[in-house]
Prior knowledge:
This protein is mainly alpha-helical. The protein contains twelve helices and no strands. It has helices at residues 3-9, 18-31, 35-51, 63-68, 80-103, 112-121, 133-144, 156-178, 197-210, 216-232, 240-254, 273-276. The chain is globular, with a radius of gyration of 18 Å.
Amino acid sequence: xxxxxxxxxxxxxxxxxxxxxxxxxxxxxxxxxxxxxxxxxxxxxxxxxxxxxxxxxxxxxxxxxxxxxxxxxxxxxxxxxxxxxxxxxxxxxxxxxxxxxxxxxxxxxxxxxxxxxxxxxxxxxxxxxxxxxxxxxxxxxxxxxxxxxxxxxxxxxxxxxxxxxxxxxxxxxxxxxxxxxxxxxxxxxxxxxxxxxxxxxxxxxxxxxxxxxxxxxxxxxxxxxxxxxxxxxxxxxxxxxxxxxxxxxxxxxxxxxxxxxxxxxxxxxxxxxxxxxxx
Length: 279
């Protein structure tokens, strides 16, 4: 099926839900440019919607929104053709992932062939960093993890613990000097190249919870913070992900001497009642 075929499968007479519109854009920001992480962000949020009995359907194709799509402030310059192609590609991929979760059918998950075809349909080329063989192979591998038997029934918290947290730590550690492509966060605004989006987004999510208006992404961040709370208490050597989080914290503090932090997330208890409630 083409990207449009899958989008049509999840069509409803309503306009796209605000949460899914937000997810389309903010999943890119939370993934910090790492497309496999973006898959895990979306899979977590779709399960949060499912667990709360909320609608998770896309309708139509937002041509105007794609044409107006802009990268986050401070992002390095990217050719406009690539920005539009990536926006269209991820709308179609979001539609496909949504359909698979909504229908409970892992056979609807895109495979490598679907990704290659979709990239061409939206104007992507191998010369664009988003659509290289390496990028699409990594993206396909991330999606394949949800095709394993039983993965369709994973709860949001399981996605966070199994996939999202380890990969966010990997991405964050890369920007603290351990990356293979970037050893710092490339920026066009002169900002801190070693800033932690993990810390930034968790503080923002805590504020939104206190304001009584948490988004689906804020609810995802709360689950991430709960998991990091657990990892932060593990002794050295007891858990490999906990050790990586400890490495990340050390690397961040080495890059911010004089402004060291005890944690690179906002503790869940600080989110108010939601922080201590059962997910």
